[in-house]
């Protein structure tokens, strides 16, 4: 009887152990593309017939969707942002699933040229809310974690910059990628960790090509004199 009880207990523990194993999670990334619905559709440099024609596309061809301006759809054509009439462009979504990676990773390769923390004030701030990664213009920049794009624009001291919202281990974070040479994502897009979102540049208030990268716990709150809700990214990379 004692042996039977021991066997039953071991069996229960094994079943309990297996049932407690977490299911493998995945990150879903949604991108948008455009399918051309007619032959001979003209591709222009801007969103009207007043802009120069730089080529033509035919029915069935697909391109990455970059946005819309009035009755014109913005596409990636030969690696450059161009426009086609929305009458002949059908937008559709593509969702891919990849194995989830926990935590954050370095968004670009290159040395740390300025760390997180106190600063001299020579550039207008006495606290550096992020880290700077030095690299040549055009070096790829990747999403540090899976999340949603909440900002993608050229504005102010950040120049070309992207902000993303993430939830990692139940905690909300906002990341900032600034001084970019180019941006390849748009607001509302869901991005998987490691997806290329732009390239390093020197736009805005930048002295030499580099990526200025910030992490904020919760929403974005900036201060040039203290940490506010920013955190040191180097403590989060895995």
From TrEMBL:
CDD domains for this protein: M23_peptidase
Q: Which Gene3D superfamilies match?
A: Glucose Permease (Domain IIA) (2.70.70.10), SH3 Domains (2.30.30.40)
Keyword Phosphoprotein part of the UniProt annotation: no
PROSITE patterns, A to Z: SH3B (PS51781)
Task: List the InterPro entries hit by this protein, alphabetically.
Answer: Cell_wall_metabolism_enzyme (IPR050570), Dup_hybrid_motif (IPR011055), M23ase_b-sheet_dom (IPR016047), SH3-like_bac-type (IPR003646)
Q: Which residues cross the membrane?
A: none
Q: Which GO terms describe its molecular function?
A: metalloendopeptidase activity
Annotated signal sequence is 1-28
All copies of domain SH3b, residue ranges: 29-93
Keyword annotations from UniProtKB, A to Z: Signal
Q: What is this protein called?
A: Peptidase M23
């Amino acid at each position: 009887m004692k042996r039977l009880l021991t066997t039953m207990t071991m069996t229960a523990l094994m079943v309990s152990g297996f049932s407690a194993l977490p299911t493998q999670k995945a990150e879903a990334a949604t991108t948008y593309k455009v399918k051309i619905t007619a032959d001979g559709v003209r591709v222009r440099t801007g969103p009207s017939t007043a802009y120069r024609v730089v080529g033509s596309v035919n029915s069935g061809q697909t391109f990455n969707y970059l946005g819309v301006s009035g009755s014109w759809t913005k596409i990636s054509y030969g690696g450059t942002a161009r426009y086609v009439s929305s009458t002949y462009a059908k937008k559709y979504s593509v969702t891919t699933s990849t194995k989830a990676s926990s935590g954050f990773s370095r968004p670009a390769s290159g040395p740390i040229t300025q760390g997180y923390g106190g600063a001299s004030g020579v550039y207008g701030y006495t606290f550096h809310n992020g880290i700077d990664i030095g690299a040549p213009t055009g070096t790829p920049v990747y999403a540090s974690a899976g999340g949603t794009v909440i900002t993608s624009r050229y504005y102010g001291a950040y120049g070309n910059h992207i902000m993303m919202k993430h939830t990692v281990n139940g905690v909300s974070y906002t990341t900032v990628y600034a001084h970019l040479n180019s941006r390849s994502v748009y607001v509302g897009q869901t991005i998987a960790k490691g997806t290329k979102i732009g390239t390093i540049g020197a736009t805005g208030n930048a002295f030499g090509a580099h990526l200025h990268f910030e992490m904020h716990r919760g929403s974005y709150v900036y201060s040039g004199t203290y940490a506010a809700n920013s955190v040191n990214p180097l403590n989060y990379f895995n």
